[in-house]
Design a protein that fits this description.
The complex is a heterodimer. Chain A is of the alpha/beta class. Chain A is built from 14 helices and 7 strands. Chain A has a 7-stranded mixed β-sheet with strand order 3-2-1-4-5-7-6, with helices on both faces. In chain A, helix 5 runs antiparallel to helix 6. The two termini of chain A are about 50 Å apart. Chain B folds into 2 domains: about 170 residues, 3-Layer(aba) Sandwich (Rossmann fold), CATH 3.40.50; about 190 residues, Rossmann fold, CATH 3.40.50.2000. A 7-stranded parallel β-sheet of chain B has the order 3-2-1-4-5-6-7, sandwiched between helices. A 6-stranded parallel β-sheet of chain B has the order 10-9-8-11-12-13, with helices on both faces. In chain B, helix 3 links the parallel strand 4 and strand 5. In chain B, helix 3 packs parallel to helix 4. The two termini of chain B are about 15 Å apart. Classes of the chains: A alpha/beta, B alpha/beta.
Chain lengths: ~350, ~375
Amino acid sequence: MSDAGHTGDEALEDPGAYVQQVMAEIAEEVRLRRASGDLPPRLERELDELFLAHSPIGVRGGDLSEAIRLVDAATFIDPVVPVESERAAGAVVKKGMRTMLLWYVGWVTHQMSQSASAVSRALHIVDDHLKELDLRIEAQRVPDAAVVEFPTSVGPGAWWVEPALAALAKAPGRVLHAAAGDGWMVRRIVDSGQDAYGIDPRAPVVDAAELGALDLRDEHIGEHLRAVAAAGLGGVVLSSTVEGMAGGERTHLLAAIGVKLAPGGTLVIHSVGRAAWEAADAPYGADLAPGHPLRPDTWCRLLEESGYTATARLGPDGSDYLITAVRSGLTPYDGREPRTT
Amino acid sequence: MSPAAGRPVAVHQFLPALNPHDATGTHTLKLREVLQQAGWRSEIFAEAVHDDLAAEAYKHWTYPEHAAEGDVAVYQFTTSSAVAPFLAERGLPIILDFHNFTSPQLFAGWEPGNVTRAAQAEEDLALLAPEALLGLARSAYSERSLRRAGCRRTAVTPVLADYARVTAEPDARVAAELQARRGRDGGADILFVGRVVPSKAQHELVKALWTYRRLYDPAARLHLVGGTSSYAYSKSLNDFAEDLGLAGAVRLPGEVSDPALAAYYAQADVFLSLSVHEGFGVPLVEAMMAGLPIVARGEGAGAVSQTVGDAALVLESGDPAYVAAALHRVCTDDALRKTLADNGRRRAADLQGERVARRFVDAIAGVVGQP
């Protein structure tokens, strides 16, 4: 029966170690399966969506218009009950009863239908009002920051890659690279002997990547961190991610990383400076972003207030910088989830 | 209060409903035996009593007819009930025997009635916990809930269950059916036992089966044994399985007899739990008793990882790809199966028998004195 390539001796000698080894092999197997395209992340999401499609509206997230549509469909109460029957003469008996009772049942159902119509009408008014409010709020909404890549800051030859790898060398667990693109940094981290994976909200970029044995997923950093176990990451690399963030989004991101990063874990942030961000040749995404880059000292201060030991390093031409920060082991995870949105 | 002269202190049990073939019902009947053997007088008082157990319990509102000075109440806390305010009003010294309850959020969108009931249970717990002499929890996970609710003194005592039913003579017809299907189609038999409700996340099991069949074993089957208290969830589950082309592979036999349950445990290849809320998980112990390897979600699943200890492959999430890979490994690695089965039998032995009974007696004697 056994086809797992083990003789069983390992299990007999040290069962606990063997189970741990098996768990690691399972994780590797999943990584390879995903990389081979056997199970694209999109397929898993489609499974979720299919189940939700079979779930009640309340579970699906409360689409008011769809709920009202169901209310409308159920508003009319039919007093003419079906009379089919499997028994001989059953239909005749039922039909007789229906005829006798129709004046009474019809009077009751008419009032119920009118009541339901009034409720439905009220719901439509509420729905119209909410849609109008939605439109007004949408006009003033602060969007999430998009990935804004500066070509000179991206790729295995970028100046900050080596110092980042050095900072991650002692990361106590798996390393996540956000805005991973085609996985260039993930590959470097894996080659340096660390376990790493990447996420990027740009699905076409991930789809076009040649994955090999890389683990890349098209996910937004905020959504992804919600699914990660507390203290489940040994390192986090943020590049092309934080520059355009508004204050609220940045605060939520730091809070989430604070929970998901293990004590002693390393946070690496690469960011361009304000001058590069506002230069005439900056990517157009910089103009559309809700926020702007922070100065390196501001990052260090923010991180130190959050329990990190942080250092900043300016790039060769001063247009960008690298922050490396180690989460203190003295402030362990306190069991609270971050208030991310 | 001091005990009535010449009579041992009574440690009576109260609960919302006493039902046969029910974990709380079995626990209550066994605990009465333990309490009586230890030397306490002990009767059972319930808001609802199943006809089959009518001779075993009194209705809770008749308690004043049986009351004596020095009585102590052990309240089997499973859900909201009129028994909670009844006990609070009487000012009896209370020991909370806490089985945990499903959080209202886990029913949201599915069963409005259950949401209300679960929210009421939270209020009942907040009412009783701060005044309780002692809180007995099935797991460290449940113990934390008791502490959060205000219980000042707590202890962990596993559930008293009738695990012998798992190793009893299996139902020959059910066993033959399972064997015949396997003989004809091949493939692994994956088992989960538990109520079909959103918190047990049977839909995650269906997703895992779909993935497992796609990647490893196209003939695998999933048996979801247990009744339901959520028609909406049960229907969604069936429709989901059908849409995935798994109508013949996902089987929901409902509640089954003890011999039939023994047959399922005996014939299955692996027990899979992706539940997101377990206060203890009696079926996990049953699976261990039956020597069945377990794959279970640990993170965000309540007490699962505490109950199974080292007797399962405990996964961080219910991610179908991980679950499928773990199932494949358990079904194909004999050394792993043996390790998990051996660990499971040892773990199950720790969670039952005289030692567990002793823990109840010691914990209760610690607050009310020796009988």
